[in-house]
Amino acid sequence: MFFTSNSNDDLHLFQNFESIGLKQQISDNKKALIKINLARAYTKNHPRTDMALLKKLVDYIYQNGGTCAITEGACGYLTQNLVASGLGDALEHYKVKVIDVDLEDYDEVLSYGEHHYIPKRFKDYPVRIAIPASSKREEMLYSSNVKLFVGAVPRKMYQLNDIINTIGAPRMRLHQNLDVSVTNLFLAMEKYSKFHFYINGGLAYNENKGEFILPETYVGNDALELDNHMYKTFFNDCEYPEYLKILESRLPADKP
């Protein structure tokens, strides 16, 4: 299920937060974790989580009696990236916690024969929210909600050599069989610390069209459903990702 609102219509956005159950979850559980896409600051044709949208969510959480932490893997530079991207005032005003997964302790989770490593602190937050940036870049996989979690695991556990904390170093173990590993990691996250809400909006990138602003903000509770909608609406001139096909074949057995 997902709801849409005009990108500039905050009232409708907040109504959608209520309709999807986010407001009630914040009221009941208080502590929220927000997974973003900000391993590095924005550069042209490399969209990141929209900071204006993130700021609206942070304000909303605190105005409704909650607190939050923001998480991403950035080799220890996540706070610096957030400040450089314009969120410094909000971090200071609300005393928002910043969790860089590359510095975190983790639990090992087995998913379809693959071992994945998920930060233990994710379980400290009963409400978990994802805000990706949607893109299909040249020679890269379509990326939005499901693929966001590639950046939710510690880089050091996915290396094939001694390159551990180099800024931007890829998680090479995932790239050995990328579509399968993206699927398995998402399902490991669903098993260990399921994310409950997905918010899509802001700048996006299509390799055939370039950068563009999403005309609406999408608030949903199903990563696969929202990924498919975003793909069909904005990326249908690109190759459909194999990892979504694999996930579609596996999810019925994994859902409660």
Key words describing this protein structure:
256 residues, alpha/beta, Rossmann fold, 7-stranded mixed sheet, 9 helices, 12 strands
Short account of what is shown:
36% of the residues lie in helices and 22% in strands. The protein is an alpha/beta fold and 256 residues long. It has a single domain (2-254), classed as Rossmann fold (3-Layer(aba) Sandwich), CATH 3.40.50.
Report on the structure:
The chain is an alpha/beta fold. It has one domain (2-254): Rossmann fold (3-Layer(aba) Sandwich). The chain is 36% helix and 22% strand. It has helices at residues 10-20, 22-29, 51-63, 78-84, 88-94, 172-175, 178-193, 223-234, 242-254; strands at residues 2-6, 31-36, 67-72, 97-100, 106-111, 114-119, 127-131, 135-136, 197-200, 203-206, 210-213, 216-220. The strands form 3 sheets. The protein has a 7-stranded mixed beta sheet with strand order 1-12-9-7-2-3-4, with helices on both faces. The chain has a 3-stranded mixed beta sheet with strand order 8-10-11, with no helix packed on it. Helix 7 (178-193) runs parallel beside helix 9.
